[in-house]
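Note to self: user wants both folds in one dump. Writing first protein now.
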Amino acid sequence: MKLLSIVLLAVLLPAASAQAWPVKPVRIIVAYPPGGGIDVLARQLADKLTPAWGQPVVVENKPGANTIVATDAVAKSAADGHTILMTTDATFSINPHLYARLPYDAQRDFTPVTMLVLLHQLLVAHPSLPANTLDELIKLARAKPGSINYASYGSGSQPHLAGEMLKNKAGIDLVHVPYKGISLAVPAVIAGEVQLTFAGIATSMPPLKAGRIKALATGGAQRSPLLPQVPTFAELGYPEVETHAWFGLFVPAASPGEAVARIHRDTRQILDEPDFRQKQLVEKGYEIVGSSPADFVIYLKRDSESRARAVRISGAKAD
């Protein structure tokens, strides 16, 4: 009888431990305003995680200062796994090289949980530009230096860094035209205010299909299944032109390991659901990742080093 009790205790203890987190509502702090792609994904995850965790999972938007407002709030929150930061590469790969000072230490104050998705951007052009390929664009830019411009959404933004890396590696002169928001760059190309920009596939698809812009190249190691006719920068000889962004989850440093493992495991299960992958992610042009915490740490180091080079080459400073 005593032996049976010991066996039952050994079986039940892991189960009890697995249920020790969460013990209260969980907040996902999104570093961007409501309505954007990252906010939509956060709310889809929250809807599915609420029944899985037996606690309300609430999305809170804290936009501002290029993700610094949300990041600082999470850095100063309790390290109990109940506050999760959902943000992009701007926070951990770009901002530490862009800002002279931050109110937190990006490496010391956070534990990476998982990269959810990668987003590869397209180099798109106004139809009037007399170049239909990247090679033709480079030849045109060399023949008429300073005559072609490209839009970004600010100094140090992904399009700015990609544009400056392309200039550096191709030996061309493109004029940078910064706009005040991510939603303004593609309309500026459509309107003919500028000739080029780098934009996400989901944002680009409607005007591409309507013939209002054209795609010259895309980031990523492989062509997008949504645009198989568009070659990658890597296959065209410019692998250094990083056009990607990513969405990831982080918790304050020293958060319980069981919380980190549970958040990763359960979000990965959602990402692996065939219907979720197809309808919510693949059709938006996302590359689904769901990396382990350890793999995410390795990726972050490599990504930060790559973006540090791009920031240095671009001369970008925080606006």
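First done. Writing the second protein, which came from a different request thread.
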Amino acid sequence: MSRQHYFAPCPRGLEDLLAQDLAECGGQDVRPVPGGVGFSGDWECCYRVNLESRIATRVLWRVATGSYRSEDDVYRLVRGIDWNRLFDPARSIRVYVTAIRAPLKSLDFITLRVKDAVCDRFRADAGRRPDVNTAEPDVRIHLFLTAEEATIYVDTSGEPLYLRGQKAAKVAAPQKENLAAGILRLTGWSPGPPPADH
């Protein structure tokens, strides 16, 4: 299997714990940064992180990266991706944008431009385009912008990983499960029998 590049976001302060998870799952080139960890690996590694990590929020697969100076540059980068090879246009999409010191005037506008680029490429290649579903999309596309670089990811996780457990009742937890798992790991706790009464 060929090596792919990924980014796994996590709660701030838990990056080193997540880096341990990724290494245990076979991740290579593990690079913690504030808010997550970049890594590389084959698809089996990606699947294992999605199944086994209690710290990752999701696993994003990097499909393109490039420098940019304007919305048109980002549009060209996104339209240059062979989206029809990645998923079927019958699947719905949603675009998410995160930016740090990006020079663009409007993140809402660049979100629309990314959506247009995906749909325009699908129209050209497949003769049809995916629908947008902001509530429950089949495919989540993430754009991350720094001051000079744009990176496009496809979410391999779907719902956030802290929602993957089967629960009889759906209620708002006082804190997200991956944050709680990280706090427990930081204390040194591990599963086992409860302490004996004295």
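Dump finished. Worth passing along: The first strand starts at residue 4 and ends at 9.
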